[in-house]
Amino acid sequence: MLTTNEQRILALLEQDPFLSQQEIADHLGLNRSTVAGLISNLMTKKYLLGRAYVLNHATEVICIGGMNMDRKYVLGDNWQPKTSNPVMASMSVGGVARNIAENLGRLGRAVSLLSVAGRDHDYDWIRTQTESYVNLQQVTQLEGQTTSSYTAILDSQGDMQLGLADMAICDQMTPDWLYRHRSWLAQARLLVVDLNLPLETVTATIELARQQEQELVVIPVSSPKMTHLPQDLTGVTWLVVNQDESEAYFGCQVASEEDVTALAEKWLSRGLENVLMTRGSQASYYANQSGERQYIQPPRVEKVVDVTGAGDSFSAGLIHGLLEGKSAIEAIAYGLTNAYHTIQTDATVRVDLSAQLLEQNYQQLKEKGAI
Question: How many domains does the chain have?
Fold first, then answer.
């Protein structure tokens, strides 16, 4: 708890972090030695981060994982190998952790991204598109490495002809790299990790969250990357996973609704607290360690424009709901609301997103009985 004088000092430094101790003393009618003691206390309590009295605005959420540059080339005609082909080119920023972080930033959450990048133009572009919503100060730029990128070549009907993924830099997100940020990570209310991290680093993140008694949300990236998820998930608060990823992890196939519920039980047996298994337009299945089990039907979308941002927008809406103190089922409904509106745009993260708009969207769908 802060004393009255400590609160008064913080209020002054909010306005001018370069005030000297004597100037603070003059403003508050205190002795300079008293102010020096109070500032020392604020640093000990981690409300100040050294000179020039940088205020530590506690980060609510830290997203740990991938960010990348996405490039798309649409062929104007049939692909002719070994020669030049006319295309329509576009690029956008992506990465599961980055996308979730931008969603949360647009929703007004204090969010930071912990990731790695090269010293290149791709990261400069990612930073330009992201830094208005996400704190990127802890992104590690590595010499001699290239920022993650994904390139897709599509035919004129939109079907992929070739996909090129350069994700080698993600291997640099080692447990040692993670531990160097341990004290900073401990300040967050909630951690989000995606499976672009190597298995050893995901394991270390779960262990840190368990030791620091922090909420941890794990978001898989794809079925092949389920090998990055350890067997012991004790310490994971939420796992948001789709059916294909679940099948890949357990090496089984879902043939009936009984298989769906059985998969959820398998997840809970690994020690995590809550699991939500999404299934596209089919009903998702939620289960937790308290015995709650429920199917949840996504709202029907009349016209889907682009599903690229569906999963990340859902996860961000869910996390936002949890941070707002909503129940698990209500938080899932916020996730469904955000995904419902995102896939009706061509944006991975919808540009008009805000906490007020999401609340309006949620209430509208609720009134219609869609969620």
Answer: 2
- Residues contacting 206, CB < 8 A, separation 6+: 193, 216, 218, 230, 232, 233, 234, 235, 236
pLDDT, average across residues 59-63: 91
Q: Are residues 176 and 275 in the same domain?
A: yes
Domain assignment of residue 21, given as a range: 4-44
pLDDT digits (tens, 9 = 90+) for 292-302: 999 999 999 88
Same domain, residue pair 191 and 316: yes
Q: What are the helix (H) ranges across the chain?
A: 4-15, 21-28, 32-44, 96-106, 121-130, 175-179, 182-185, 199-212, 243-250, 257-269, 310-323, 328-342, 355-367
94 burial type by CB count under 10 A (0-12 exposed, 13-18 middle, 19+ buried): buried
pLDDT in tens, 148-193: 998 888 888 777 788 888 999 999 999 999 999 998 898 899 999 9
Do 122 and 8 share a structural domain?
no
- Is the domain of 27 the same as that of 118? no
pLDDT tens figures, 85-113:
999 999 999 999 999 999 999 999 999 99
CATH number at residue 101: 3.40.1190.20
Asked if residue 77 belongs to a domain, the reply is no
